[in-house]
Design brief:
By secondary structure, the protein is α+β, with helices and mostly antiparallel strands. It is 21% helix and 31% strand. The chain contains 4 helices and 12 strands. A hairpin with a 5-residue loop joins strand 1 and strand 2.
């Protein structure tokens, strides 16, 4: 028999910034790797745009700032919203762990729709560039209406609003001495300089 050999099915690729193609992973495959024990919780990996991305080490400063914000949110958020800490959120085939995801009361921390997210907050130290570029672009394209990136060193916050497929229409830096007000939760008025972070 003269059969034409079948071409092997190849895995889709992503295109890295440096132009090198990378294998694209699905959320189901990513979760299966965890089930098989290939990834553990200590590995701290996110799935962003089909790529496995190791998360930066948290560092002491990150944890101090995050703990202060966590305490403030616990005491000051209204009852009609819930907040989740590093929820393992799975929007549109991605897997990411923002420091805080705030959404409507009763929302699923892993499956809340991006357009229903009230506010996403990242505390960034070594990951500052990644969080304000790659992640900001992803969250904007998903339709997350407001995204804050807090610089753990300086406490300056980049407030992203106006999501679209091309990114956020506005990205304004707010000094720690100025109040941060959440667009969809006007009662949230947080001044980082007042949190006593050394």
């Amino acid at each position: 028999m003269n059969e034409i050999p079948r071409q092997p099915k190849s895995r889709p690729t992503t295109q890295a910034a440096e132009g090198v193609p990378r294998l694209r992973w699905t959320l189901a495959e990513f979760e299966r790797l965890g089930e098989l024990g290939i990834f553990t919780e200590e590995d701290r990996i996110e799935l962003i745009g089909g790529e496995l991305v190791p998360m930066s080490p948290k560092g002491n400063r990150h944890e101090i700032v995050r703990a202060a914000i966590h305490k403030w949110l616990r005491r000051n958020l209204p009852d009609d919203v819930d907040y989740h800490v590093e929820p393992g959120w799975r929007p549109a085939g991605n897997y990411c762990e923002p420091d805080f995801l705030i959404g409507p009361a009763g929302c699923s921390p892993t499956a809340v729709r991006p357009q229903d997210v009230t506010l996403l907050i990242e505390v960034a130290h070594w990951s500052l560039k990644f969080d304000t570029t790659i992640k900001a672009d992803m969250y904007a394209s998903l339709g997350v209406r407001e995204y804050w990136v807090i610089n753990a060193q300086t406490l300056a916050t980049k407030v992203h609003r106006g999501p679209s497929a091309k990114g956020y229409a506005s990205a304004v830096e707010v000094r720690p001495s100025r109040k941060l007000t959440a667009l969809l939760i006007p009662s949230v008025a947080l001044k980082l300089a007042d949190l006593g972070i050394a």
